[in-house]
Structure formats: structure tokens, C-alpha cells
Design a protein that fits this description.
The protein has about 190 residues and is mainly alpha-helical. The chain has a domain of about 110 residues: YbiA-like (Tetracycline Repressor, domain 2, Orthogonal Bundle). Strands 1-2 form a two-stranded parallel sheet. Helix 1 runs antiparallel to helix 5, helix 2 runs antiparallel to helix 3 and helix 5 packs across helix 6. The longest helix has 27 residues.
Length: about 190
Amino acid sequence: MSLAQIPPFHPRFVKPEIYFWKAEEIPFGFLSNFFPLNNSCSLFKSVEHYYQASKFDDQEYQIEILNTSSPYKAKLLGNQEIGLGFQAPWRIELNEIIKKAQKRGIYLRSDWEYIKINMMLSAIREKFNKDVRLKGLLLGTGHARLIENSPYDSFWGIGKDGKGKNQLGLLLMQVREEIRRTTIAIITTESTKV
């Protein structure tokens, strides 16, 4: 899904809760960490690329993650998941990258559990502050509760049972409020100059 495919929506018509998960889902797929970013606006291909690369201190391995062709592949490299059984050539290549990194002693950074929320927050801020269209779309969600509807993740999403922590949704709402306050401050400052 590209930004051009997202129809404009007005906060007044937005439901109290917005469920999102996959990047290709219209109209709220742009909230997903897998949503592709405009490379002229961002330093990374997706929030997922940034987040997964942040898990490691090794710059060479970070670059491997940042340069991989998709958010899904970035996630596999970041989780150091070695695939088993029949595999496509791209999966065999990822396995080799992971094995090489592990052989060099590259594993998840020791402080990851303490910093992962801040790393995600930094990536989300970068995503929405660097792209005016994405910023507008996020503000267009009004005051709706944003809910990552992943059945596989009960930390960042709500998980299979719908009772997960929804940390991604909470961070998106935090960034939306930061942008709203900054926008109001700019408008207020500009209006006093007139």
C-alpha cells in the first residue's frame, strides 16, 4: 500500500477504536511498523527495520538489517530466527547472515528489555515527524484508541485473546498527542505574530 492509496478521512467520522495490523490494509495500514517509508523523508525503510537493527550493538549487523529488502526479513534477522526445512533462496541467505553473526558473537544487546520501548518510540517519532502526509493521517485518527490487532504479539499488540498490552498503539497515541500539541503551539505562535 502506498500513501496515494489511502483515502482522506475526517476525525469526526473516525470510530472510537481503530484496529490495525497489516501495512497493506486500507485505510489504517500506515500505522503498521511494516508500512514502507519514503526514503527521501526517512533514514530507514520502515519502523520495523529501525527497531530490529536497534537490537544489536554491532554496526555491520545493523547495516545488514537496515539494508534487507522487507520489514519481514528485517524482523527475521532481528530475532535471529534460523528457518528449518525447505527454504527459498532468500531464506537460506538470511540463515547464513544470522549464522555468521552468531559465530562472531553477535546476539541481542544485554539492555534490550530496558530500552526497547524507547527505541520503538524514537522510530515512531521519526516516521511521523519526517513525513507531512503521514503526520496528517495520524492526526486524522482524532482521539481514537489505536489498537494493534496482531494475534501473534501480546506485547506490542493485543494478541490472540485480545488482552495484550498494545504497547505499539499506546506509543502511536503518545506521538499523535505530541504532534497535536506541537501543531497547536506553532499555530498559536503564528497567530500572535499577525
